[in-house]
Amino acid sequence: SRVSRASLALSRSLSGIRTPAQAFSSLSPAAFLSLSLSLEVIDKSAPLNDDESVRAEVAILRRLRHASIVGLVEVFDARQKLWIVMECCAGGELLAELCKHDHGWTAEHAARASRQLLGAVSATPTRPRVADEAEAVPPSQVSYIHERGIVHRDIKLPNLLLTHASMEHGDVKLADFGLAAAIASAEYAAA
To answer: What's this model's pTM, rounded to 2 decimal places?
Structure first.
């Protein structure tokens, strides 16, 4: 996607740069706006933002590159603040989109969001997964992170974001890996 390519290009150009001011001062306003990025600023001195959990979340996000997971672009670590540059999901939370509709979503909207989160093709006892199907359909967000030994532990509507203001034009992306955990492969195989 355009955002992924722009994010990758920005990430490459940021190598060695340690502050947001250094990183973005060379970009024109039009170039910056075309990147569709969001910035999360974490105050390290706040009691709920312990350094270890924030670093664990960043380490997990660095391991994930999936079209339906909010992408991490860069992290700037200053003495008192951590600046996290991520892909922007302009549509906001899925919950807010659902609340806008008096009678809920249509079955088509719900099916589309469910396929993105859980996968489009599933094997059943009467219908095993066919090799062609497995190759044609990208893995869902959940199966992708599980294949990498990561559990999200906080999948809920506020952590599902939309790329556009309308479900007809956007996709659902999984966000907020603050409670996620990496599981050792032996531990994961036993579960």
So the answer is: 0.71
Q: How many Cβ atoms are within 10 Å of 15's Cβ, its own excluded?
A: 7
Whether residue 154 lies in the annotated active site: yes
30, HSE (Cβ side, Cα atoms, 13 Å): 0
The predicted-structure confidence for 19-31, as pLDDT tens digits, reads as follows 555 666 666 666 6
Residue from 43, 102, 154, 171 carrying the catalytic annotation: 154
Residues in the chain: 191
Please report which helix (H) or strand (E) contains residue 8, including its range: helix 2-13
Query: H/E/C letters for each residue in 71-135?
Result: CEEEEEECCCEEEEEEECCCCEEHHHHHHHCCCCCCHHHHHHHHHHHHCCCCCECCECCCHHHHH
Residues 130 and 162: beta-carbon distance below 8 Å? no
